[in-house]
Amino acid sequence: MKKKILLGYGLIVFLAALPFQMNHGQVTVDLESGYVTTGYNDIRSPGDLGTMFSLNEELEAKGKVYYRLRLNYNFNDRNTVSVLYAPLTVSSHGSIPRDVLFEDALFTSGSPIDASYKFNSYRITYRYKLVQKEKFEFGLGFTAKIRDAKVALESGNIYAEKVNVGFVPIINFRLAWYPEEKIGLLLEGDALAAPQGRAEDILAAVTYKVSDKMGIKAGYRILEGGADNDEVYTFSLFHYAAAGLFLTF
After folding, report:
1. E strands within the chain?
2. Per-residue confidence (pLDDT) for residue 195, from 0 to 100
3. If you average pLDDT over residues 83-101, what whole number do you get?
4. What angle do CA 125, 66, 152 make, to 5 degrees?
5. Which residues are registered as beta bridge partners of 40?
6. What's the predicted TM-score (pTM) here?
C-alpha cells in the first residue's frame, strides 16, 4: 500500500512539473479506450486448499468498455519516462454445479454467485531508445508496477474476497516501424516471466499521424499472467479491442 501511495505522489509531482518539462522536453498524453473480454480466468484461494473454479467458463463474464491513461515525457532525444493508470474490473454471474471453497467461505453447489475481478495497474516506466532511424525505432526499459487486485464472491449472505496489492518489476519495450510518412506499425508493452508467475501486457496497433501534435491508433491488446503459490492460484487472459489518441505538447 505504501508503494501505491508513493506512486500516487510521483504522479502528482509529474503533473506539477509539466510546465517546466515542456520547456526542456516533450510531453505526450496517450488516451486509450475500447472493449475488453475475458479469455480465461481461473482462481483457487487459498492456493493449497481452495477449490479451483473459472470466472468465465463456469460463470458468465461480461465484456465492458475500458480506458487507460498514460503520460510520457521524452527528453534528450532517446529517453522516455512515463506513468500509466490502467484500471480493470470485470463482473461474472451464474452458478457452479459443485461446492466451492473460496477463502473461508463455502459456496454450495448450484447457488447463485455474483463475482467481481479487479486488476488495477499503476506503473512508472523508464525506456531508452536503442535504435533510432527514420523509419524504425526500438527502445528497451524497466517498469515498476503496483498491482491492485481483488477477487470477490457473493451468494446471498455469504461473502468472501481475496485482496492482493504488491510490487512487480517488468521489462518494457517499444518497437515502431513507419512504412509511410504518416502511417506506422506499433508493438509495445511490459512483459516478464519468473518462477513466481508471469505478466504480459502487449499492444499491436496501426498508428496514423494526423498532425505534428496529434496521432491516433487502433489495434489489439493482450493482458495475461498470474501466480501459483500456497496463498493463491490465479491465471487470467483478457482481450482488448483498442483505440487511442496521442496529444503532444
Report:
1. 26-44, 53-54, 60-61, 64-75, 79-86, 89-95, 100-102, 105-107, 112-132, 136-155, 158-177, 183-194, 197-209, 214-228, 233-248
2. 86
3. 98
4. 95
5. 237
6. 0.89
Q: CA-CA-CA-CA torsion for 186, 189, 194, 197, nearest 10 degrees?
A: -120
pLDDT score of 202 = 98
Q: Are 43 and 151 in contact (CB under 8 A)?
A: yes
Residue 68, C-alpha cell as written in the block? 487507460
Please compute Rg for the chain using Cα positions.
20
- Segment 20-59, tens digit of pLDDT: 444 456 999 999 999 999 999 999 999 999 999 999 999 9
**In this structure, what C-alpha cell is assigned to residue 211?**
498532425
pLDDT given at position 12:
44
Residue 12 CA: distances (Å) to CA of 24, 71, 142: 19, 12, 21
DSSP state, residue 63:
P
- Give the pLDDT of residue 24: 53
Cα–Cα distance measured from residue 226 to residue 234, given in angstroms and rounded to the nearest whole number: 5
DSSP state for residue 111 in the 8-state scheme = -
CB 92 within 8 A of CB 102: no
Q: What's the CA gap between 28 and 74, in Å, rounded?
A: 8
What angle is formed at CA 71 by the lines to CA 151 and CA 130, rounded to 5 degrees?
A: 105
Is beta strand 233-248 parallel, antiparallel or unpaired with respect to 26-44?
antiparallel
Using alpha carbons only, give the angle 199, 202, 208 rounded to the nearest 5 degrees. 165
Local structure of residue 181 (DSSP, 8 states): S
Q: Which domains does the chain have, with CATH numbers?
A: 2-248 (2.40.128)
